[in-house]
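## retry 2 of 3
previous attempt timed out at serialization; input unchanged, resubmitting
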Amino acid sequence: MQHLTYGYTSVLVSDSVADVVLAYAAALSQSRLSDVVTVPTTDFSGLPSSSRMLLAPGIALMSEPAPDDVLEAEERAFVAELRARIVAVLAAGAVAPSRSTM
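## retry succeeded, writing output
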């Protein structure tokens, strides 16, 4: 699990979600693009939730480790969708990210 920090708040997400959101944010930033994504999260009670985030150049985003959760959802569909978006953004002529998490 990871704390994905956006602005003054953080949300709890799976490791794979944190990795792909950061990679997508980097690709968008390098391409000078933005997008709004609905990120699958876990609330303070451990229940599935979601948060909408604007990913754009100049918006700070970071992740840091959180205690592991044996019930961590993999969110394969979300991860696959963002990976497809990354490919589309980079195929439009952007420079490839310097460090890929995929």
